[in-house]
Amino acid sequence: MTVKELDSAPNVAALYPKVVLGGLRKSGGDRLPDVEFVRTGVVADPGELAAYNQVCGFRLSDELPITYPHVQAFGMQMALMAEPSFPFPLLGMVHVANRITQYRPVRLGEAVTLRVRVADLRPHEKGTQFDVISEALAGDDVVWSDVSTYLRRGGGSGSGGGGQQLAAPTPGAIWRVPGDIGRRYAEVSGDRNPIHLHPLTAKAFGFPSAIAHGMWTKARALAAFEGRLPEAYTVDVKFKLPVLLPAKVAFTAWRTDDGNAFEVWNARKPKPHLSGTITHL
Hints:
Number of strands: 11
Helix content: 10-25%
Largest sheet: 11 strands, mixed
Number of helices: 6
Shape: globular
Order of helices and strands: EHEHHEEEEEHHHEEEE
Strand content: 35-45%
Distance between the termini: 30 Å
Radius of gyration: 18 Å
Structural class: alpha+beta
Strand order of the largest sheet: 1-2-4-5-6-3-8-11-10-9-7
Oligomer: single chain
């Protein structure tokens, strides 16, 4: 594997035009780049962290929310998928799942090493999927890891099990999601995918309105558990139907044998946006 050392965070705003133009020349492939991006001495900025916490519903703390290192690694993920050897255009890919493990909290002011790679290209009933793997290390120890699974539509077997009628759960809370949450999350995360920013840009990609970031929805759900989670745990979610903005969503959670489970639903119809589990380590 080729290791590329980065001395600063990639400029995500500059990467998006590169991703769009470069993506026009990409049509797929059967191999992912055998490269890992590494950046050392990464420290959370207190002001940026506070803004992120406010947008996602977390309290201010000297510990990073479990989802925040994903934001710190996002530019590296983008840069890797913008590489000429990466086979797929980034725009149009679907983020279908995300699993994060926190082995212990990362503290504000603590310097970590971030590393990002892609792996496990495999068939999916609707196309091809792969994982973007990110890790945070303190010294030689992995203290945080993240696996984001993406789907590239087209050429799949189409042999999925099909939909099923779901019963609406009893909500534990109702959230009103404002129409500008996509732009607000983009400001604190760097993820300025046009499907999240404005109805007009979302319509260009087939959505009737802007949609909320899946990672915002995950973070907002985890904020509901603050003060009730251990120092070490895994949170695994599957992204389902998009949250069309503005929205009214229902949140429900329950205990399991090894932690918790939760769901975010359309508050008006029994349609799920996200389902997740929290496993205590």
